[in-house]
Write a structure and sequence with these properties.
Layout: E1 4-16, E2 26-42, H1 53-61, E3 67-73, H2 83-98, H3 108-125, H4 133-140, E4 143-147, E5 162-166, E6 172-176, H5 184-195, H6 199-221, H7 224-240, H8 246-257, E7 262-265, E8 273-277, H9 281-289, E9 296-297, E10 306-307
Amino acid sequence: MGVTIAASAPGRCGILGNPSDIYGGKVLSCSLPARAQCRLTLDVETSLPDDATLWEAATRRFPLDKVRVEWSSDVPRSSGLAGSTALLAATLACILKARGEEPDLATPEGLAAFSELVRDVERYDAGVVCGFQDAYMAVHGGLQSMSFDGKRPDRRGGPAARMEPLEAELPFLLVTTGVERLSGSVHGPMAERWLRGDREVRNTMERLPAMAEAGVQALLEGDDERLAALMTENQRMIAALGGSGEAIDRLIERCLKHGARAAKLAGAGMGGTVIALTRTPDELADRLRGDGYGRFMQPQIAPGVRFE
């Protein structure tokens, strides 16, 4: 019987500031109770998942053979909750441990280095146009205020993000639209516009960090009125850039009709998931079920990547 290594990592939801993390901005984000799991059995006949894209990306850089790979995930597929990044983080942790290169998950420096590695592999080996908050949240977990000074869509790496872990009530409900999409379909065109010097995109990315900062204070103080105004403006700004989509807009309208104080996209947009501000999440979920929605989740301050 081969040796088994297992790890898991959480999905995440962007509360405010997304997607400015790609452009040197700031993001307020929280982990989810839903996690992606990787289980490796070593020294056995090689067996891979049907879609082995992430495995091939990871082992292109860190070769590993004679292994059975088993994946599972509670994060809804292609839902804007960083499920693929969480799976990659768990997989890379297992691969490195199997190679005798176990990542340092005990120090801030080690967590930052592993976050950067996860993002680098996803962006440059898997070819996914993605932000930085996903990797940092999958690795760190928790409720985080993150600053990405020095990051740019045309610059590989850059300074490590500055992380500020927070403790606060989380008056939110996540609702998936049921529309699957890839983050690159949103991030790619927006990044191209930014690189061309599009003033609308650049002005938006320059304004979003201050909104994330203000959102931290509002969340810590339980100021729902201020938090609602910030979330609404964040959504309006991204929608104006074409980063929302019909499914998101329709779901936001239903959330507001059923009593949510505000709602916005939780990830890249064009489908995926909405985060709604509400102190009665169960009641909101019940009303949305009547509109045909069926997948709900609440953010949770959960640990980042860990060995099982």
